[in-house]
Every structure is written in structure tokens, then in C-alpha cells.
Amino acid sequence: MKPLIGISCCMKTFGVYGMPNHAASDTYVRAVDEVVGGIPLLIPANGAKADFAALLSRLDGLILTGSRSNVAPDNYGGPPQPEGSPEDLARDATTLPLLRAAIAAGFPVLAICRGLQELNVALGGTLHQRLQDLPGRIDHSTPLQPFAPVRTGLAHFVQATPGGWLHRLAGTTEIAVNSLHNQGIDRLAPGLVVEAVAVDGTIEAVRVVTTAEGRQAGYAVGVQWHPEYDFATNPLSARIFADFATALTSAQRLKTAAA
């Protein structure tokens, strides 16, 4: 049976009248269809109305998507963001408790860009709000412009932790990635380990090793870049989704054995 994969949505306005919509990019759906081999299911950003236990009981895996919006600083004790910074409080109210429940349950999780930041905040970490304003940091954002090969092209290198999850997938410690973010990890959450850093020291990939209760965690990883943009042409991007698929198969076997 194909695994059912939850994909987090943002709240966005569409149409002439700016009606609120729950939305996720087609790139995530295509990655689930074409690489993971699962059934994509969009998770609405309905916050307090969501039944996370019921949702996780039906899903087999979870993908936390990227977004232009920033995680609101109230969620990690940060100062107010600069005026005009995009936020999505409905998404925060959905993804943060959903992640905590998923990690506690040993649920397979792949967190991408904003998703990595949510993973860190959900487990007790903090964020830098604008990396480009910090001394010694490079600008990790990409100018908004319509030419996709430039907007989503490889922008800088990251160094994978020798012997880690990402090193195993890439077969090398030096990896070229795209870069479309302003926020980044400041204080790493308890239970996370660093899997890659950028040339300026920014944390670019993480893995959950222990839950908040001190138990060994299930499969839960995050990357700061966007493998969903180039999984058809970039071997590592394809391997990230294929590795997630392998974790789903292992989790399904454990669930069947325990039933």
C-alpha cells in the first residue's frame, strides 16, 4: 500500500477578492508522486481546530514545506521582526504542535527550509531573523525574479558532517545547494545534531537524535535548501526524497509488526 504523506500548507490569499486559501507548492506534490512513491495529502493551516493525534494516526509521513513567511518570534522568545516581515500565524499554530507530536511518536519527518526552522523552534531552539544583517554572514536570500534557473539555482556550498546522514547520501562533504531564506538557526534545539553548515557557519541541515522525553528519535531530518526544486536533475536532491521513502517503509514494517 502506498504511504500517505502529509504536506504542510501556508495561508495565502488568491483571486480578485484576496480570499484566504490553504496552499502548498506543486513541487512537493511532484516529489511525493515521482520519488517517494506515496499519496500526497495537503494539511490545512487550521491551527487550534486541528486534531493532530487523529491526523498522525492516518498519515505515514510528514513533509514540512518552505515558505516566504517567517516563523513568528513569539514562538521562540525573539524580538519583534522588522516591519513588513511576512508571517503566517495560522501555519505556526499548526506545524509547531504537529511537529512535537510527530517527533514524540517517532513519525518520519522531512523538514525543508521554513520546515527546518519550525523543527528547531518546535523542539526548543531559536532563530536569527535576518542572516544578512549579521557580521560575517553571507546573504542567503535570492532576489525575487521570474527566471527560475537563477532563482532556484545552486548558490553556495555547505560542508556535511563527516560520517553523518547527509554525508552518507552525498558521498562527499562538500555540497552545492540553492539558497532562498532570510531566517536561520541561532540556538540549536536539544535533541538535534548538525548535519551540515554553510561557508559562513550557518546551520544548513539537522537530524533529530532524541525526543523531548529522552528517547531515541525516529527518522526526522531537515535541510535549509530546497531539494524539491531540482530532484529531477540533482542526484542528491533525489536521494533525500528516496531516503525519506526508505524510512517510511521501515516505519510501516514496524507498525505492522506491532499490530
Distance between the termini: 16 Å
Order of helices and strands: EEEHEHEHEHEHEHEEEEEH
- CATH topology (level 3) name: Rossmann fold
| CATH architecture descriptor name | 3-Layer(aba) Sandwich
The count of helical stretches stands at 7
CATH class: Alpha Beta
CATH superfamily: Class I glutamine amidotransferase (GATase) domain
Give a quick account of the main beta sheet: strands, pairing sense, barrel closure: 9 strands, mixed
The count of strands amounts to: 13
How much is the radius of gyration in Å?
A: 17 Å
Characterize the overall form: globular
Total domain modules: 1
Strand fraction equals 15-25%
What helical percentage do the residues reach?
25-40%
Side by side, the strands of the main sheet go: 4-1-5-6-13-12-11-8-9
Unreliable spans = none
Could you tell me the mean pLDDT?
A: 92
SSE blueprint:
Blueprint: E1 4-8, E2 10-14, E3 19-23, H1 26-36, E4 39-43, H2 52-58, E5 61-64, H3 89-104, E6 109-112, H4 114-122, E7 127-128, H5 148-151, E8 156-160, H6 165-170, E9 174-177, E10 184-185, E11 192-198, E12 203-208, E13 220-223, H7 235-258
Parallel strand pairs: 1-4, 1-5, 5-6, 6-13
Antiparallel strand pairs: 2-3, 7-10, 8-9, 8-11, 11-12, 12-13
Helix pairs in contact: 1-7, 3-4
Structural overview:
This protein is of the alpha/beta class and 259 residues long. The protein has one domain (4-258): Class I glutamine amidotransferase (GATase) domain (Rossmann fold), CATH 3.40.50. The chain is 30% helix and 22% strand. It is built from seven helices and 13 strands. The protein has a nine-stranded mixed beta sheet, sandwiched between helices. A two-stranded antiparallel ribbon has the order 2-3. A two-stranded antiparallel ribbon has the order 7-10. Strand 2 (10-14) and strand 3 form a beta hairpin. The chain is globular, with a radius of gyration of 17 Å.
